[in-house]
């Protein structure tokens, strides 16, 4: 939840996932540059595949589906976050998921720079 009451937001950004329930049933918002806003921006970068946005076709994270078992997805995620979100410091780690060496679980740790 945002630390700002909806009525005190001066530079609004939609929350992710998009939700209703704000003022008069409107969209819920975050104040720009708050921790919540930055976290939501990171979620969008990770969720949007490259090529999905017509206005910015290079935005998002490239598909790493067929790079299973390698460390390439770690570099891809790190590169996408570094390119598109400059307000964070990131750490990305990968480890095998269960007994299947071909599947990897990625852990992303964020540090948010205070403006």
Strand residue content: 25-35%
The main sheet orders its strands as 1-2
What's the end-to-end separation, in Å? Answer: 20 Å
Give the ordered list of helices and strands: EEHHEE
CATH architecture of the largest domain: Roll
Number of domains: 2
Q: Mind telling me the CATH class of the largest domain?
A: Alpha Beta
- Biggest pleated sheet: 2 strands, antiparallel
The DSSP helix count reads 2
- Fraction of residues in helices? 10-25%
How many β-strands, per DSSP?
A: 4
Global outline: elongated
Q: What's the gyration radius in Å?
A: 16 Å
Report the average pLDDT across residues. 85
Low-confidence stretches: none
At the third CATH level, what is the topology name of the largest domain? Nuclear Transport Factor 2, Chain: A
Which structural class do the helices and strands define? alpha+beta
Helix and strand topology:
Blueprint: E1 12-14, E2 29-31, H1 35-47, H2 72-84, E3 88-97, E4 100-112
Antiparallel strand pairs: 1-2, 3-4
Describe the structure.
By secondary structure, the protein is α+β, with helices and mostly antiparallel strands. It has 2 domains: 1-31, no CATH class; 33-112, Nuclear Transport Factor 2, Chain: A. It contains 2 helices and 4 strands; from the N terminus they run E-E-H-H-E-E. The strands form 2 sheets. Strands 1-2 form a two-stranded antiparallel ribbon. The chain has a two-stranded antiparallel ribbon with strand order 3-4. A hairpin with a 2-residue loop joins strand 3 and strand 4. It is elongated and about 50 Å long.
